[in-house]
Amino acid sequence: MGEKRAYKPRKPGGGRRKSKPEYDAEKILKELMDSAVVLYDAGMSLQAIADELGLNPIKVRKLLITAGVYVSDMAEKVQVTFDDFRKTQDHKAAVLSTANALGLSRSSVTSYLPYKKGVYFPGTAPADKISVGAERQRRYRAMKRWRNAPTEEGSADVRITARSK
């Protein structure tokens, strides 16, 4: 069969080029967290901070929990209970066990846990604030809406979404 080729190590920085090299989920999370903490320390309510940042109040609370500045009895109970279950279970099972133990819904439990990956943005967020996958989903959904009910306005939405790349 012949001789094997010698192993050739890969060059550093090789691989596929990033579609959005300027997109950094951690940086965006940090910026949002810092601005939410500044507003919270200024004495603003969660709703007022949410209005200021253009987010949902639950996302603001989750940002503040991630930053470690939001304190409440329920947040503390959820975190302690979740940590206890997490020692013996995977993440999903620990969330469900915490929900059952405290009599909360799964979404309520996750809203009291800190962010792990980043903040999800609403459909109105600019294209530079969302990931490549989220942008692709927006284009797909816009095309799907337009195919179901083709209108001039819908075709404009598809063009705008495609141009935001």
What is the N-to-C succession of helices and strands? HHHHHHHH
Largest sheet: none
- Return the structural class: mainly alpha
**Radius of gyration from the CA trace?**
22 Å
The N- and C-terminal alpha carbons lie at a distance of 49 Å
State the share of residues found in helices, binned by percent: 55-70%
Strand content: under 5%
Q: DSSP helix count?
A: 8
Tell me, rounded to a whole number, the average pLDDT: 84
Q: What's the β-strand tally? A: 0
Shape: extended
Low-confidence stretches: none
Provide the descriptors you would attach to this structure in a database record.
mainly alpha; 165 residues
What's this, in brief?
By secondary structure, the chain is mainly alpha-helical. The chain has helices spanning 25-41, 46-53, 57-67, 73-86, 91-102, 106-111, 132-148, 152-163. It has a domain at 121-165.
Descriptive report:
- The structure is a single chain.
- By secondary structure, this protein is mainly alpha-helical.
- The protein has a domain at 121-165.
- It is 59% helix and 0% strand.
- It has eight helices and no strands.
- Helix 2 (46-53) crosses helix 3, helix 4 crosses helix 5 and helix 7 (132-148) runs antiparallel to helix 8.
- The protein is extended, with a radius of gyration of 22 Å.
- It starts with 24 loop residues before the first helix and ends with a helix.
- The relative contact order is 0.10.
- The model has no long low-confidence stretch (mean pLDDT 84).
